[in-house]
Amino acid sequence: MSGQSQRLVVVPTVTMLGAMKARLVGATRGHALLKKKSDALTMQFRQILKKIVSTKESMGDIMKTSSFALTEAKYVAGENIKHIVLENVKSATLKVRSRQENVAGVKLPKFEHFIDGEIKNDLTGLARGGQQVQMCRQAYLHAIEVLVELASLQTSFLTLDEAIKTTNRRVNALENVVKPRLENTIIYIKGELDELEREDFFRLKKIQGYKKRAIEKQTAAANQFAEQQSAEKVSLREGISISSAHNLLSAAAEKDEDIIF
């Protein structure tokens, strides 16, 4: 890009120079803060990514254990255990609630599981089948807890990804667009102000030269007039012509100079 497109179109004045310097200081501070924010978000992003990987790796074993527990419950208590369980369930005991966590100014959604009410063991009368159903229930409760945690991590992962992209775009814009334009604008204003100062200095020198020449002309005219007056007085007093009086005055002036030197 050319230098013209890399600076702002402003009037080169001292006030504008101060304003551009203040904007550059603000842009520098904003760039530093956004860079720190990007680093903090990236660190949190990597931690969440590690947790997601470990949770997904353990999820396979947990779901396998839960499915095997369900198969055991059906084998011991029979295939009709589903209807007995549904009859004993009135409302959900395991529920999920959401909250927000602030990380470097970014609000990350968090999901938490909690138990609403008491877990009743109404199926203990099924001999060993009731015990197996309870074990299956505990296995699936653990699986739901891990799923809720994984959902929370996945949502935070996506939110952080968007926040990091937005922050990095702002950092790059400040670093590659805003700051260079302000710096080039400051350089342009300083150059224009220096040029104006040189023009003013040259103008003052020219004016002083004109005044000096005018004073010299006035002094020469005054000296010529005084010499003319003196020549007329000498001409009247001595009864000679004005040119002879001029010559007489010139000779007297040269004689005075010889005496001085």
From TrEMBL:
Please name the Pfam families in this protein's record. ATP-synt_D
Q: Which organism is it from?
A: Morella rubra
InterPro entries (alphabetical): V_ATPase_D
NCBIfam families for the chain: V_ATPase_subD (TIGR00309)
Q: What family is this?
A: Belongs to the V-ATPase D subunit family.
Does Acetylation count among this protein's keywords?
no
Q: Which domain of life is it from?
A: Eukaryota
Q: What is this protein called?
A: V-type proton ATPase subunit D
Q: Which PANTHER family match?
A: V-TYPE ATP SYNTHASE SUBUNIT D
As given in the record, the signal peptide range reads none
Q: Which keywords are on file for this protein? A: Ion transport, Transport
Instruction: Output the Gene Ontology terms for molecular function.
Output: proton-transporting ATPase activity, rotational mechanism
